[in-house]
UniProtKB/TrEMBL annotation:
InterPro entries, sorted: AB_hydrolase_fold (IPR029058), Dienelactn_hydro (IPR002925), Dienelactone_hydrolase-like (IPR051049)
Top-rank taxon, per record: Bacteria
Full protein name: Carboxymethylenebutenolidase
Domain Dienelactone hydrolase: 15-228
Length: 231
């Protein structure tokens, strides 16, 4: 079980973040970036799992400007509707600013002085922007939405980036995927993997699109990537 901390926003105010620590007390730091469901039970479970692997994990509440403490699921129509409302009202630029503040906090807690980020869905988009706009050492994007809109920032990436793309993603159409592949293929900072036959959220445990083999492969690549870049 983790604990809650307060982080100061760049433009004033504070927001909460869930923190999970490894048994030894500290490790390389990870910032986990939420889907559209907030810092829910799954995000906290993911944080606890990475802490069990030796990382100090911080999960910021990025919807705090709209409604603090959002904890939705993907199991009801009402939660999906609320999640999309929050997604549509979300300020991406301020969200990246909040992640930058979280990275600064996490760096002070890191046993190696290095910080990585992992994001899923909306968080996958934000993970990519975090790589382009902050001093993060490594960043992982799982089926990030709207990445094709941010390819012009790829040249600003100084750390390493791992991108997981679902070939049959309902939220990232083929033309967008083609742009992403073309835009990132020549970037030495970026390693991109395609998961054939998989839909959006193929790595979300308990989700309708979960594909165990693909999820395990993506997670294995992610862990190896983090051990190479921030451990």
């Amino acid at each position: 079980m983790g604990s809650m901390v307060q982080i100061t926003a760049k433009d004033g105010g504070t927001f909460e973040a869930y923190v999970a620590r490894p048994r030894g007390g500290s490790g390389p730091a990870l910032v986990l970036i939420q889907e559209i469901f907030g810092v829910n039970h799954l995000m906290r479970y993911q944080a606890d799992c990475f802490a069990a692997k030796g990382f100090t994990v911080v999960v910021p509440d990025l919807f705090w400007r709209q409604e603090p403490g959002i904890m939705l699921t993907d199991q009801s129509e009402a939660d999906w509707q609320r999640a999309f409302e929050l997604f549509q009202g979300f300020d991406v630029d301020k969200g990246v600013d909040d992640i930058a503040q979280t990275v600064a906090y996490a760096r002070g807690e890191s046993s190696t002085g290095k910080v990585g980020a992992i994001g899923w869905c909306l968080g996958g988009r934000l993970a990519f922007l975090t790589a382009a706009r902050t001093d993060i050492d490594a960043s992982v994007s799982y089926y990030g939405v709207m990445l094709d809109e941010h390819l012009g920032e790829a040249g600003n990436i100084s750390g390493k980036v791992l991108v997981h793309v679902a070939a049959k993603d309902d939220f990232v159409p083929p033309e967008a995927q083609a742009k992403i592949k073309d835009g990132l293929s020549g970037n030495p900072q970026v390693d991109l993997h395609i998961y054939e036959g998989c839909n959006h959220a193929f790595a979300r445990p308990g989700g309708g699109n979960f594909v165990q083999d693909a999820a395990l492969k993506a997670d294995e690549r992610t862990l190896a990537f983090l051990n190479e870049t921030i451990a």
